[in-house]
Design goal:
The complex is a heterodimer. Chain A is mainly beta. Chain A contains no helices and 11 strands. In chain A, strands 2, 4, 5, 9, 10 and 11 form a 6-stranded mixed β-sheet that branches. In chain A, strands 1-3-8-7-6 form a 5-stranded antiparallel β-sheet, with no helix packed on it. Classes of the chains: A mainly beta, B mainly beta.
């Protein structure tokens, strides 16, 4: 069974700080998704990365897929209180059978 | 495209009762997934359908749990003889699989179950 480990599990920072969240596995994924989830709601898709080494930007968020497609990172520049939430990475097993979720990084941005 | 819809959003029940949740996927999505999520954890896979066929069930899905997708559109998840340990958020997701599609899953808002 493929596993996805996210770190850190919890992050509390001041508004304006930068942060990076990591998602690691020993297995190769055909694609990887990042989601953001707010309390009481379902995960909302932020981005999908498919190609090894791929970098995608979404305003202040930068996503990178590792060259070997085993790991990914999410970097947030100048965090804002509205970025508060649970960030989940999810890797699609090769063959497109199942998606594996990490346990998430809970981010709290203080004003 | 109205997104994935789940009903009800919240369900409170007494231990031993049966509950049923419904999920309406994004139209034309051929895959539908059910997950369970407890506080502080990521979603745990329960089962998925491709069209009307249930192709995989997790070991988490005990005999008290059953899911159906009779016409390949909406799906129901039933829990019989609920236990307090069943209290969780139940999430549904759908995706389009096959051809050029990347099988990206889109989630509903979830049904929060509380078993008293």
């Amino acid at each position: 069974t493929q596993l996805l480990e996210q770190s850190p599990q919890f992050l509390s920072i001041q508004e304006g700080e930068n942060l990076t969240v990591y998602c690691n596995s020993s297995s190769v994924f055909s694609s990887l998704q990042w989601y953001r989830q707010e309390p009481g709601e379902g995960p909302v898709l932020l981005v999908t990365v498919v190609t090894g080494g791929e970098v995608k930007k979404l305003k202040r968020l930068t996503f990178q897929f590792g060259d070997a497609r085993k790991d990914s990172s999410l970097h947030i520049t100048a965090a804002q209180p509205g970025d508060t939430g649970l960030y989940l990475c999810a890797g699609e097993e090769t063959g497109g059978f199942k998606t594996i979720f990490g346990a998430g990084t809970r981010l709290f941005v203080k004003a | 495209d109205t997104g994935v819809s789940q009903d009800p959003r919240h369900k409170i029940t007494k231990r031993g009762q049966n509950v049923t949740f419904r999920c309406d996927p994004i139209s034309e999505h051929n895959r539908l997934y059910w997950y369970r999520q407890t506080l502080g954890q990521g979603p745990e896979f329960l089962t998925y359908f491709q069209n009307e066929a249930q192709l995989e069930k997790s070991r988490l899905l005990s005999d008290r749990f059953s899911a159906e997708r009779p016409k390949g559109s909406f799906s129901t998840l039933e829990i019989q003889r609920t236990e307090q340990g069943d209290s969780a958020m139940y999430l549904c997701a759908s995706s389009r699989w096959g051809g050029e599609a990347k099988n990206i899953q889109y989630f509903g808002a979830g049904t929060r179950l509380s078993v008293l």
